[in-house]
Write a structure and sequence with these properties.
The chain is mostly helical and 172 residues long. The protein has a single domain, classed as Four Helix Bundle (Hemerythrin (Met), subunit A) (Up-down Bundle), CATH 1.20.120.1760. α1 runs parallel beside α3, α2 packs antiparallel against α5 and α4 packs parallel to α6.
Length: 172
Amino acid sequence: MTGLAGNLAAAALIFGDMIFLGGLAFIAGSVMDTLDGRYSRMSGKGTLFGAFLDSTLDRIEEGIVLTAIAWQFAEAGDANAAAACVFVVLGSLMVSYTRARAEALGVECKVGLATRAVRVVILSIGLVFGAEELIDGVDLLPASIYVMAGLTTFTVGQRVWHVRRELQTQEA
């Protein structure tokens, strides 16, 4: 729940055009989200419902932050970057869905480049360094969104291909 609170704060800051602070809140919320699941498992306090809730909240957190970013792009008149945010939300959901569906079929599916951790790092870089153009003429926030769009698409393809091969092996 702490991760959710941090990511809601991040989204509110981003909606308020405080991108850098939103990036810091996103990082803090994402770190807390990572730690709570590990703590639950290590302490023996984890439950199946807790794991389910954690995964569900992860999708909500990522979606709300990307929605705030899309809003900022739309306000700035950058329709392409706003649309890319929507595409990233879809891609992120599909990365998660392909793993969940594969595991429901009995196939372990942790393959792929754009895991949640990778997406968090890329988005964090875009948020924290997007307000300041570190490379002359390059705004890292839209760049991070475009990279995430490509990587989530690629990862979904990797997972579909992996599951296909695994199921063919099982059926043979």
